[in-house]
Design goal:
alpha+beta, five-stranded antiparallel beta sheet, 5 helices, 10 strands
Length: 217
């Protein structure tokens, strides 16, 4: 595996809720008023603001939980993730003009992506990290997934299918481009099975994942 001048966004996306808030705060603290990142200052300040919002939502969730606070934390995490991704894009665009591109990209706490030296190997199927429907984060017919790939940067698209009869028949048409995604309008009250596979670079695709079973609320 070789390292490229591309930031590994999946590394911080996979962090637990407490570590994720600390990561965003640290990025902002290292970048604000740092002359090396003067061109990215506006994006860094947006990370600083959204990190503050996330950490407030996290504190409220940890103290009391509940549906509203769970939803607030989910939305705050989504917003902070978007701001971090926007910043990494700016850093990657600027890196080629820097004397030490790797140091420039990692100076705020990001890690670099590792990619195979050859892009023709077997693509392993998705691993389901979390799947949630109902409970404290109840929303009728909504299922939230977080998948994991062995080499995230080579994944182009995620495709999925759903069965309501234990795998006898399947309904296709699920498509996502991010490892964390939300399905809406799912059959509320049904015991469902989901399967996913990756479409990757060089027209490769993985096998289907194992069954991911969940009751949809």
């Amino acid at each position: 595996m070789s390292v490229t001048n591309k930031i590994n966004n999946q590394a911080y996306i996979d962090l637990g809720k407490d570590d994720f808030g600390s990561f965003g705060t640290n990025v902002a603290e290292k970048g604000v008023k740092n002359p090396i990142y003067a061109e990215q200052e506006s994006a860094i300040k947006e990370v600083e603001t959204t990190s503050g919002i996330y950490n407030v939502a996290l504190s409220a969730f940890n103290s009391d939980g509940g549906k509203d606070r769970t939803n607030n934390l989910f939305n705050a995490r989504k917003d902070l993730t978007a701001k971090l991704k926007a910043l990494t894009k700016l850093l990657e665009d600027a890196a080629p003009s820097k004397p030490d591109p790797e140091a420039f990209l990692t100076g705020l706490g990001f890690t670099l992506a590792k990619v195979p030296s050859r892009r023709t190997g077997v693509v392993k199927p998705p691993i389901c990290q979390t799947v949630v429907s109902g409970g404290k984060d109840a929303s009728k017919g909504v299922v939230k997934f977080v998948l994991k790939a062995e080499v995230p940067d080579e994944i182009v698209t995620i495709v999925g299918k759903r069965s309501e009869d234990g795998g006898l028949t399947w309904e296709n048409g699920i498509v996502a481009t991010k490892m964390a995604f939300v399905l809406t309008d799912q059959p509320s009250g049904k015991d469902c099975i989901f399967q996913y596979k990756f479409l990757a670079t060089n027209n490769r695709e993985s096998l289907w994942s194992g069954n991911i079973a969940i009751t949809v609320y």
